[in-house]
Every structure is written in C-alpha cells, then in structure tokens.
C-alpha cells in the first residue's frame, strides 16, 4: 500500500458491517479510502483479497454469538479473527 493512502488509513477508524441473508454472510470494512467486502458461507473455504495484494484462504464459523475467521496466508501462517457481536455493536 503506498505511503499516503497507508497514513490516511491509519488515521481513520474503519467501520464494520456484518449481515447475513440465509446462509450467506457479508463483512464490509469501510474506510475513508475504500470499502472491502467479502461474502461467504459458514464452514466453507473462501478467498479474501487484502489491500497489499495478499490473498488469504479463510474459513469462518459461528461460536455462540461470535464469528470466528481462521485465515491462512501464502506463507502458511495462520491468523484467527474473532468478531464479537453484541447489542452495542461489533468488536474485533
């Protein structure tokens, strides 16, 4: 990511929107510069294209009221993201 857009992204607070339509889920990450959207089905592998050009292979599951995404990058490193969904909003 080029220097100026990276600085602007660091200064802004992204907004997350999570929605579902039946078994299809969508997570939108909205920033001043761009909006990224990924749609998936729980328990099925899908790809997520990151701003720096990296492609992650993800599987998202539901644990209680939380969405848990396990991501594997091209270097086979594993990262877990937990979206805690409460009545007040979403925490990552």
Question: What can you tell me about this protein's structure?
Answer:
- The protein has a single domain, classed as Calycin beta-barrel core domain (Lipocalin), CATH 2.40.128.
- A five-stranded antiparallel β-sheet has the order 4-5-6-7-8, with no helix packed on it. It has a three-stranded antiparallel β-sheet with strand order 1-2-3, with no helix packed on it.
- The mean pLDDT is 88.
- Strand 5 and strand 6 form a beta hairpin.
- With 92 residues, the chain is mainly beta.
- The protein is built from one helix and eight strands, in the order H-E-E-E-E-E-E-E-E.
- The chain is globular, with a radius of gyration of 14 Å.
- This is Lipocalin/cytosolic fatty-acid binding domain-containing protein.
- GO terms for molecular function: lipid binding.
- Belongs to the calycin superfamily. Fatty-acid binding protein (FABP) family.
- InterPro entries: Calycin, ILBP.
Task: List key phrases describing it.
92 residues, mainly beta, Lipocalin, 3-stranded antiparallel sheet, 59% strand, globular
């Amino acid at each position: 990511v080029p220097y100026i857009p990276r600085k602007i992204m660091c200064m802004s607070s992204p907004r997350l929107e999570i929605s579902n339509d039946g078994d299809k889920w969508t997570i939108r990450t909205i920033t001043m510069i761009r909006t990224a959207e990924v749609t998936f089905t729980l328990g099925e592998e899908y790809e997520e294209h990151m701003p720096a050009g990296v492609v992650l292979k993800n599987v998202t599951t539901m644990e209680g009221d939380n969405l848990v995404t396990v991501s594997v990058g091209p270097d086979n490193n594993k990262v877990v993201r937990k979206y805690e969904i409460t009545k007040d909003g979403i925490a990552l």
